[in-house]
TrEMBL record:
Organism expressing this protein natively: Myceligenerans xiligouense
A Gene Ontology molecular function term of the record: oxidoreductase activity
A Pfam family the protein falls into: adh_short
Family matches, as Gene3D superfamilies: NAD(P)-binding Rossmann-like Domain
Domain Ketoreductase: 9-176
Parts forming coiled coils: none
Keyword Acetylation assigned: no
Protein known as: Ketoreductase domain-containing protein
Keywords noted in UniProt: Oxidoreductase
Superkingdom of this protein's organism: Bacteria
Classification via PANTHER family: NADP-DEPENDENT 3-HYDROXY ACID DEHYDROGENASE YDFG (PTHR43086:SF3), VERY-LONG-CHAIN 3-OXOOACYL-COA REDUCTASE (PTHR43086)
Similarity remark: Belongs to the short-chain dehydrogenases/reductases (SDR) family.
Cross-referenced InterPro entries: KR_dom (IPR057326), NAD(P)-bd_dom_sf (IPR036291), SDR_fam (IPR002347)
C-alpha cells in the first residue's frame, strides 16, 4: 500500500499553536500539504505559518478560534470558505485535560473541556465530513488518549471525553470505508507538551514521548492504508491499553485509579482519602 500523497491537499489542524498539533502541521507541510492552523493564540499560529511557508513552500493559513464556544464547526467552515480554501483533510487535535477529584473541579472549566474535547470535535467533523469524503484521499485524525481505554479516577471527565473520541472515531472509520477517506483515532500516552502546565496534579511520572513520535505513529498507520480504526502511540502504551480486555470492569477501574495516583504528584493526598 502506497503512502498518502499529501501534495495538493489542504489539511486543517486544530490546536496547532503547540505540542502535538504543531508537530502535525510541520509533518504534513513537510509532505506537501497546505495547512489551516486553528487555535486561540494567533501570534503562535502566524509564526508557525511563516515557518512552514518559508521551509516547505506550502500555503499555511492561521485562523484564530476559541473552540470552547458553541458552533465552532459552522464558524470554522465560514472562515475557511471566506478564504476560498478547499479542505481535504482534518486533524482534530485541540484539547485539554482537568484533573483532581470530580467534586472539587470547577464546573465552568468542565463545560469548556467537554466543548473543546468532544462537542466541537463532533461539530467540526460534521461541518467538513462531506468535503473529506468527496476528496477521498485525505485523512481524518481525531486525537484521543490512552485515557480513552479505561475510566480515569481523578481524571473522570477527561477520560470520558477521550473514550467518546475513540468510540466516535472508530464508528466513523467503518462508515467512511467506501469513500476512501482514511480515519484514525490516535491515542498518545504521556507526551512532552504544554498539556501538563494547567493540570492540578502537576508533574506526571512515566516515560514521555515527543510530539513528533506521536505524529509519526499516526502517519505510519495511515500510510499503511485504512486498516486500523485506532492506534496507540508507543509499544508500552499499546500494551497497557490492551490490559482492560482481560479484566473485569471493577478490576479495570481499581487498576486505573491506582496507576493514575502513582503517576501523579498527588500520591500522598489520594492515599489518605
Ligand atoms: N500531552 C499528553 O501527554 C497527551 C496525552 C494524551 C492525549 N493528549 C491530547 O493531545 C492533544 C494535543 O495536546 P498537547 O499534548 O499537544 O497539549 P498542548 O501543547 O497544551 O496543546 C493543546 C492545543 O489545543 C489548543 N486548545 C486548547 N484549548 C483550546 C480552545 N478553547 N480553543 C482552541 N484551541 C484550544 C491549544 O491552543 P491555544 O491555547 O492557542 O488555543 C493548543 O494548540 C489534546 O487533545 C490532548 O488531550 C495529550
Amino acid at each position: 500500500m502506497a503512502g498518502i500523497d499529501f501534495s495538493s491537499q489542504s489539511t486543517i489542524v486544530t490546536g496547532a499553536s503547540s505540542g502535538i498539533g504543531a508537530a502535525f502541521a510541520r509533518a504534513l507541510a513537510t509532505r506537501g500539504s497546505d495547512v489551516i492552523l486553528v487555535a486561540r493564540r494567533l501570534d503562535r499560529l502566524r509564526q508557525l505559518a511563516s515557518e512552514l511557508e518559508r521551509d516547505h513552500g506550502v500555503r499555511a493559513t492561521p485562523i484564530a478560534l476559541d473552540l470552547s464556544r458553541r458552533d465552532a464547526g459552522q464558524t470554522l467552515a465560514g472562515e475557511v470558505a471566506a478564504r476560498g480554501l478547499a479542505v481535504t483533510g482534518l486533524v482534530n487535535n485541540a484539547g485539554f485535560g482537568t484533573d483532581g477529584p470530580f467534586h472539587e473541579e470547577d464546573p465552568d472549566r468542565l463545560q469548556d473541556e467537554i466543548a473543546v474535547d468532544v462537542a466541537n470535535l463532533v461539530d467540526i467533523t460534521r461541518a467538513f465530513i462531506e468535503p473529506l469524503r468527496q476528496s477521498g484521499r485525505g485523512i481524518l485524525v481525531n486525537v484521543a488518549s490512552m485515557a480513552a481505554y479505561a475510566p480515569g479516577p481523578d481524571m473522570a471527565v477527561y477520560s470520558a471525553c477521550k473514550a467518546f473520541v475513540l468510540s466516535f472515531t472508530e464508528a466513523l472509520w467503518y462508515e467512511s470505508r467506501p469513500s476512501g477517506l482514511r480515519v484514525l483515532s490516535l491515542a498518545p500516552g504521556l507526551t512532552r507538551t504544554e498539556f501538563f502546565d494547567d493540570l492540578a496534579g502537576g508533574a506526571y511520572h512515566g516515560s514521555y514521548q515527543t510530539p513528533e513520535e506521536v505524529v509519526a505513529a499516526g502517519l505510519r498507520s495511515l500510510d499503511r492504508g485504512n486498516r486500523r480504526p485506532s492506534v496507540v502511540s508507543g509499544r508500552g502504551n499499546a500494551l497497557a491499553t490492551a490490559l482492560p480486555r482481560f479484566l473485569t470492569r471493577r478490576r479495570t477501574v481499581l487498576f486505573s485509579g491506582t496507576l493514575g495516583a502513582r503517576s501523579r504528584d498527588t500520591v500522598a493526598a489520594t492515599a489518605n482519602r
